[in-house]
Amino acid sequence: MTRLRRAASAAALACLLPLAATVTAASASTSASTEAPGTPAAAPPAANTAPRLPDPTGPYAVGRSTLHLVDHGRKDLWVPEADGRELMVDITYPARPGAGPTAPYATTEEARLLLKDRELDKVIPPERFAATRTHSRVDTSPVGGRHPLVVLSPGFSVARYTITALAEDLASRGYVVASIDHAYESVGTLFPGGRMLTCVACEKARTEKDFHAAVVNRAEDASFVLDRLTGSRSPWKHADLIDRQRIGMAGHSLGGATAAAVMAADPRVRAGVNMDGSFQGAVPPGGLGGRPFMMLGTDDGIHRPGGEDTSWDEAWPRLDGWKRWLTVAGADHFSFSDFPFLGDQLLPPGTPYPGSGLSGRRSLDITRSYVAAFFDRHLRGIPQPLLAGPTRANPEVRFNRP
After folding, report:
1. Window from 19-33, 240-254, 277-291, 366-380 with minimum mean pLDDT
2. Digit-coded pLDDT (tens) for 187-213
3. More confident of the two residues 295 and 357
4. Looking at domain 3-15+57-384+391-400, which CATH architecture does it have?
5. Average pLDDT for residues 146-174, to the nearest whole number?
6. Which of 5, 124, 358, 401 is the most exposed place for a label (fewest CB within 10 A)?
């Protein structure tokens, strides 16, 4: 079974492990930590307080707008009778400081469906998970100028909110970020009219061919989003902020494969990042036109050179531009998302995040630092010593050179 297939079938469980552990915390064992010296863990709040995402690290405040986009020129891969291919897209952007409502993390119903998928909705209050505090203000005034655009795609069966911390951090550093929810590919995403679309793809995608089709379909989603955001009649009123010559893409799990597939098909995307996803043939034999690509994954028997997921070994020689193969000691599949950080707050004090030797804070510190450094180098032309090789500040990060 490939890494992608295993991740797809276990995605909801993996992201809920830290939550499920609240009912078995008394028997939880303490795992070894690979924390960098001086890195504090996220402090667990009281049981009746909402979790909070980490503070963005850039100089700007953060705004968010949400778009509902429909591609009427395509049939939906999973529900062909649907009226076109629907997408929900969060646009997170650098904003001016100011008041305004805080953008939500997830709706209570989205949270309930995620918990119900693992039979945890009676154990974990969906309201508390949904109430996670973000750092974005709804439709607040943007910072002027022209900003690079980064498209983000989440893992299979989970929604766009699972990578909110990364989106907010990039926006605070001066990027416009478009986070896509691909219809019928999460356990629950709210669409206009109160429609909750669930994971039809989870029932239909069974073979490698199915998952390859899913990656191609997502790549078409991303290109459609670019068409709408950079076209002459953009649905986002601040679209003039986007520098159309500086576009990148990153994704987690299936979203990481999508980043490569988009680059293979769409020359507008200049740089890409795959966070712990099987490629599923997304990198063609002819490469990506010399454009830069970074692979960021777990440092285990799966994504090290010669690991179980052979797609990384197959993709590496095909990547024909600047490239890095980074693996993170102590990380697990969902260390590149929000969930370990939220789990550290939801678990009882002293209970480690199951399956990972990294705290949630350290996981996000590494993910956000290396992804931002990659795009700063390749979309902004800013030298990044962080990407040159191992550092004492990040001993967990291995630079693989097959």
Report:
1. 19-33
2. 999 999 999 999 999 999 999 999 999
3. 295
4. 3-Layer(aba) Sandwich (3.40)
5. 98
6. 401
Please write down the HEC assignment for all residues of the chain: CCHHHHHHHHHHHHHHHHHHHHHCHHHCCCCCCCCCCCCCCCCCCCCCCCCECCCCCCCCEEEEEEEEEEECCCCCCCCCCCCCEEEEEEEEEEECCCCCCECCCCCHHHHHHHHHCCCCCCCCCHHHHHCCECCEEECCCECCCCEEEEEEECCCECCHHHHHHHHHHHHHCCCEEEEEEECCCECCEEEHHHEEECCHHHHHCCCHHHHHHHHHHHHHHHHHHHHHHHCCCCCCCCHHHEEEEEEEEEEECHHHHHHHHHHHHCCCCCEEEEECCCCCCCCCCCCCCCCCEEEEEECCCCCCCCCCCHHHHHHHHHCCCCEEEEEECCCCHHHHCCHHHHHHHHCCCCCCCCCCCCCHHHHHHHHHHHHHHHHHHHHHCCCCHHHCCCCCCCCCEEEECC
Strand-pair category, 61-71 with 85-95:
antiparallel
* Encoded amino acid at 104, one letter: P
